[in-house]
Amino acid sequence: MTDAIILSARDLTKEFKGFFAVDGVDLNVRQGTIHALIGPNGAGKTTCFNLLTKFLSPTRGTITYKGTDITALSPADIARMGLVRSFQISAVFPNLTALENVRIALQRQRGDSYDFWRSERVLGGFDARAAELLGEVGLSEFAGVHAGELSYGRKRALEIATTLALDPEMLLLDEPMAGMSHEDVDRISALIKRVAANRTVLMVEHNLSVVSSLSDTITVLARGRVLAEGDYATVSKDPDVVEAYIGA
Ligand code: ADP
């Protein structure tokens, strides 16, 4: 972990017909950390996520990634710079195996071409890397299983593997634990820690306790604004945060 800021937002604002879904948000994500953006329903998390990943344009404010102003760039541009959101490529293809899903993501990343399909040597290279990525997300033993047959938690892990195929330096995850059992939450938490060993992770999550053991920094949003920021011990005791969650 360093003190270098990899991603920052200044005065990030999104207005929908007079309603400010995100309202003057400042955010600093330090390189090599796991940073969680949390808040009750309607806090503006998804809008913020879509602004940071350029799926929405801000009404006001700037976003800087590795010292470059990315406010006007497209999602594809920033993905090429190493800032990748989960599920950017596609969801998982259920009729293909786990390995084939990751291989396709790798082929897309490399700019799939006729030659790539023809060359056994190149395909073999993709398979080796795909197997490596499956190992990274703990799915080695499921390489030959159709994605549609995987449990929900393992499907999410596979989606993370397809995202890693884009070789991100920073990963943005949208509610990676949504709809998961306790066991899956533990598994995905361990996976995110592993993935973050040599990358930066920003994740949006509804549930404060789910991110407690995982995050270096937590930013709490409520009504489009930053309510509190700090580690779990700090924000979980903040009276404004407690009230926002109880009042939500
Ligand atoms: P969260 O992800 O924290 O639940 P959202 O970012 O989805 O919050 O939404 C924040 C607020 O902005 C909500 O009140 C929502 O109704 C509103 N909102 C989100 N998207 C739009 C939109 N496209 N048009 C109008 N209002 C929107």
TrEMBL record:
The keyword Transport applies. Residues 7-248 form the ABC transporter domain. InterPro entries: AAA+_ATPase, ABC_AA/LPS_Transport, ABC_transporter-like_ATP-bd, BCA_ABC_TP_C, P-loop_NTPase. Keywords: ATP-binding, Nucleotide-binding, Transport. One of its GO terms (cellular component) is plasma membrane. SUPFAM superfamilies: P-loop containing nucleoside triphosphate hydrolases (SSF52540). GO terms for molecular function: ATP binding; ATP hydrolysis activity. This is ABC transporter ATP-binding protein. It comes from Microbaculum marinisediminis.
